[in-house]
Amino acid sequence: MNVLVVYAHPEPKSLNGSLKDFTLRHLERAGHTVQVSDLYAMNWKASLDANDSLERLSSERFYPSSESKHAFENGLQSEDIAREQDKLKWADAVIFQFPLWWFSMPALMKGWFERVYAYGLAYGVGEHSDARWGERYGEGRFAGKRAMLVVTTGGWESHYSARGINGPIDDLLFPIQHGMLYYPGFDVLPPFVVYRTGRIDDAKYAEVSEALGRRLDTLWTSAPIAFRAQNGGAYAIPALTLRDDLAAGQVGFAAHIARADEGVDEAAEEATEEVKQRAEANSSTMSIA
Amino acid sequence: MNVLVVYAHPEPKSLNGSLKDFTLRHLERAGHTVQVSDLYAMNWKASLDANDSLERLSSERFYPSSESKHAFENGLQSEDIAREQDKLKWADAVIFQFPLWWFSMPALMKGWFERVYAYGLAYGVGEHSDARWGERYGEGRFAGKRAMLVVTTGGWESHYSARGINGPIDDLLFPIQHGMLYYPGFDVLPPFVVYRTGRIDDAKYAEVSEALGRRLDTLWTSAPIAFRAQNGGAYAIPALTLRDDLAAGQVGFAAHIARADEGVDEAAEEATEEVKQRAEANSSTMSIA
């Protein structure tokens, strides 16, 4: 399989650098083909701006989304952006690896998403109707691909636990996993998180890399997070609020993950399956300018 | 009072640009002094890296936090960083204004936090003991200052409601409001959020700017979000998990906000007050190299 590793850390000799190298070796030994986007090494341009296209639709005023659409549709994107989109198209799975800085990804990686996620590729896909609100959250151009976060943090696991002061790690990662990965169609695997990075000695490193290896071995088989598909009947359209009988009375991010003990809603299941097939058909004919 | 506006949008003629200009005029008319950090106009460097200090502590390997500490303590920070820290020191309140891109702030602003928030200034402050885990979450160098987000988004308000598909806006902003603003000591005011920016005509703009004006008029008097102080007794040290009797049984971000109907815990209140006084004393003697 083809795996893209998008990676952001300024120091190759860091724990992150070692884990990234481990990932490459491990996947290649297992017979996979790997490409790496090492954003610091590439001197990736972080800021989305008017220089991201070769020719502006409007020179009067810069509208990020309409310029992105124009450039994407007409092969006018900056070359660094088009190259990353080609890697995404090629990949069967994408691993995003980064240190958690101020409770999110480094600016450089955020800028990768802002620039590479063009209108027509990652958003602004599909039609709006009474039954559908575009192709997103469970469908979209990346349907059929898998994504996984590999994250390191200096804090303790308890600080990121259900009642830990930093907030639960799953909630901190929700805007990324749900908002940036599930949104354009990825199946998102549970994250691999390394805590308390200041205390990683050789023994602990061996343990961490072994655990990461196991996750890489099951990249194709482990169950993705059960985020709810937008157009499968779970959400009212266009309000996009969760149906009252699903996670009844619950608010917050966790409500958007289906629980194993939830009764199966056959109509919604069918709609989701249909949506998924269409998404995969779209995905295979996708052409990136 | 002194107000710093940290602002990130690539187009001056955008809705964001207009609201930023409105904010400046409105605050100045009310007699306040305003400085703006217009990150796009400043061509702000987004990536935290080894060039952020004038002299490295170690040339062998780049450790972001120890290099930040060394540079901050010894007046060796890159000049653009030191200048922003001076503005923070000067400000009584800071407004962070940005469009919500992929459910967070633009990369350029994320890079502002990563680089300006030095070790010894925004983190790595205070001692660790059985009763305290550094000065953070309710104390820290910015104690006594206020902060507020001004955020625009293309999505509908219902999409960001308690059961909306994107997740509740308060939860999406928690990593910023709690993790990046409350952490180094800011009192964080409720955010000002503009939804459905594609549909802002003149009448709607008049309404939005009037509402923003009211928020600016009450910048000094409105109640901050009641995040719980770390060292006030609400959290076990060092696990930093919330005491069982507070928000009992609740998990997720909202548990870290005290509810109005919670019984007042006098011991915790006293500890918090003491913590606050010490923080404010620290803050007034703070010197930024």
Automatic annotation (TrEMBL), chains A, B:
Keywords for this protein: Oxidoreductase
Residue spans of biased composition, Polar residues class: 280-289
Record's protein name: NAD(P)H-dependent oxidoreductase
InterPro entries attached to this UniProt entry: Flavodoxin_fold, Flavoprotein-like_sf, NAD(P)H_dehydrogenase_qn
MF terms in GO: NAD(P)H dehydrogenase (quinone) activity
GO cellular component: cytosol
Region (Disordered): 265-289
Flavodoxin-like fold domain: residues covered: 1-212
Pfam family membership, one: Flavodoxin_2
Protein family according to the UniProt entry: Belongs to the NAD(P)H dehydrogenase (quinone) family.
Protein source organism: Paraburkholderia antibiotica
Superkingdom in the source lineage: Bacteria
